[in-house]
Amino acid sequence: MNNLVVLGETLGIQDVVNVARENFKVTLAESARAKIAASRAWVENIVARGERMTYGINTGFGIFANVHVSAAQARDLMRKLITSHAVGVGEPLPEEVVRATMLIRANTLAQGFSGVRVEIVETLIEMLNRGVHPIIPAKGSVGASGDLAPLSHLALVLSTDENDLERESGEAMYLGERVSGKIAMQRAAIPRLILEAKEGLALNNGTAVSTAIIALAAHDAQNLIEHSALAVALTLEAMRGASHAFDARIHDASRHHGQKEIAARVRELTRGSHLVDKAQRVQDAYSIRCAPQVVGAARDALEYAIARLQEEINAATDNPLIFVEGENGIALSGGNFHGETVAMASALLAIAVAEIGSISERRTFRMLDGKLNDGLPMMLIERGGINSGLMMAQVTAAALVSENKTLAHPDVLDSIPTSANQEDHVPMAANAARHLREIVWNTTHILAIELVTAAQAIDLRLRNEGKGDDMLGEGTRQVFRRLRQDVPYLDTDRVLRHDLEMAAHLIQTCVIFDATH
Known about the structure:
Blueprint: E1 4-7, H1 13-22, E2 25-28, H2 30-49, H3 74-85, E3 89-92, H4 95-109, H5 118-130, E4 132-134, E5 137-139, H6 148-158, E6 159-160, E7 171-174, E8 177-180, H7 181-187, E9 193-194, H8 199-204, H9 208-238, H10 248-254, H11 257-269, H12 286-289, H13 291-313, E10 321-325, E11 328-332, H14 340-368, H15 391-407, H16 429-465, H17 474-486, H18 497-508, H19 511-515
Parallel strand pairs: 1-2, 6-9
Antiparallel strand pairs: 3-5, 4-7, 7-8, 10-11
Helix pairs in contact: 1-4, 1-9, 3-6, 4-5, 4-9, 9-11, 9-13, 9-14, 9-16, 9-17, 10-11, 11-13, 13-14, 14-15, 14-16, 15-16, 16-18
């Protein structure tokens, strides 16, 4: 079945995207069930014997790790853990992020190191498959011990206690309606679970929220890199730029893989062009000439970040972890919940994507300046003065670039100790993830502005010379034609917001990219 994602094997970023955005169904690998059952049996044995202090199983949490909790108190302990930690604030996370979070959390538990019952994993899967999406406030996590607050809001919906109070069941979206978690689960015919020893901690102790946001952003960043190459090629045509800056020999000499790939893509897109090199400039400004070096570096950064995210998606990230060897086992307390890896990956991606936007805005600026754009009218509009043309589009791009500079500050450097200094170094991974998501959105619109600007410049260039779009390269011609289907030539001032939003939509849905393949 092609639209089925299996947990407990190796989950990829594309799997996360498919479940989060395309509503692929989810199932649990049979091989995972035995591992889950073995670790759960070990936990139940420890609870039954009660003979040693084991963190998270018969103790309190954080600063209360040395406080013993009896077997009779295990259920109460787990429920109080979830209710006390559900302290998130702010707007709810988008549905796609919630779905990605549930998938990653279920996959973490399916690794068999968390000591939960298989019913916990199956309930998360059923919630995904039947469309129960917990309301998770976006703010309140420092990324260690994982995303405690947001994951607790998820666990509120999944779990209950003997009192089964609706007001303590959280909230969820179900069939387009926001209701209590209790009502959502009842309508979806999914039983809520009373959490046993260790299970509450296994649910809220990990990086699933941060990883989910960053994984979706990384997927979108890959799309932006592809569209950045399209924008560079279209701008090169509009500016009648020098093609030798993209010569393979230059980029082979650099030895940077991403740089070579971007230069090759621009060469492919502009193959057969009658506009490129026509200005006979010795060299172009850096924003054009050095585009492969900048966008290529972003591509290399993305590859590194994706590798780390791939590891995190398939990692066991709660604490303690249960290692069962034959009839023996041990619970080891460590720190896999610490979101440093994803926070660093997010910081790197934030810088990379912000740089794509920054250099794009500079190309837009050059095309609009009559002193820099090789003979085109100021602001790329006829009858300038009565018309303002694309003047304000560049202003919007500049505003977004400036915001990206602030958002790209590495959150991972801003540790604030919590939990009475037990958690004395935290990575702020969730903040980093949210900021990265905003940078991706901003940069999508910055690139959209460049594409609209380049298309306008090309139209003016072709009209001035009485030529058709067959003057363009093999790939750029397709980009230009596809843009013009939804974003018409600007002959006089109109509301440009619709054009820019349409161009951004074409980027987000890969329509322009697909036109070149």
